[in-house]
Amino acid sequence: MSSYSRVAAVTGANKGVGLACVRQLALQYPQSSLNNGPFLIYLAARNKERGEKAVQDILQDPQLKEAKALQKDGGLSEVKYLPLDIDSKDSIKSFAATLKKEHPDGIDILLNNAGIAMDGFDANVVKKTLHCNYYGTMEAVKQMLPQIKDGGRIVNVASSVGLLDSKYAGPIRERFLNAKKTEEITDLMEEFTSAVEKNQYEGTWPGAAYKVSKAGVIGMTKTLAMDNAKSGSRVLINSCCPGYVNTDMTKGRGAKTPDEGAQTPVLLALGEIGGSNANFWYNGKITAWEK
Known about the structure:
This protein is of the alpha/beta class. The chain is 43% helix and 16% strand.
């Protein structure tokens, strides 16, 4: 039995929005409706050295210390590093197995922040971007969903660039919007990859791998959530955009701080907004998928 009342895992959490999500979960948990005792937050990251350094940064964070958020300062939260590379099925499987062993009764929150943004656009960039952002996130959700407690939350960090706009041909937009099964979204990802390989994407697809990968995350989240709800599960699965955040991924060009970007995913994770399922959230509000 776990000695913690609540358990969360945040992926891609050694820097940027992911690290800010860990901070904000610790800061906001005591005032949240989820609070019913000690809270363990797993800071999951691919690189062990960077992940463990991020935990040390959290432990020395002056704002957390002043708020007495962490157990070492008399608070409720504890932060531990856990390895996870969502680009690797074996790593995801190991991550899920570790959590199942440590918390056989399940965990409360999975906040999927891990992802990549690559420069350039060609078939190789498309394959690598989709493999991580779409297929990796989907695999993490599928592996972890059976371990999320009834009433728990899965939050997938997507992006407003994943909104369906005029860069997509009308029939493609309709297929995204009308998809009922995750396989239909995966089919679209495969068709995009093939179209780029054949240099036949113009006029049908955007020439941007990250954009399409995040449309895939929004669609996959929606279809998985709807399918999961049919089983009677009360686990809520939503996607969200943190906004244009000043991080390495935006090359420092973002307008929001990481803490500001963390607000919507953290509020969804703690149940302070939401109560809904299968939606895309932006700036704390449900947002239509189609522009």
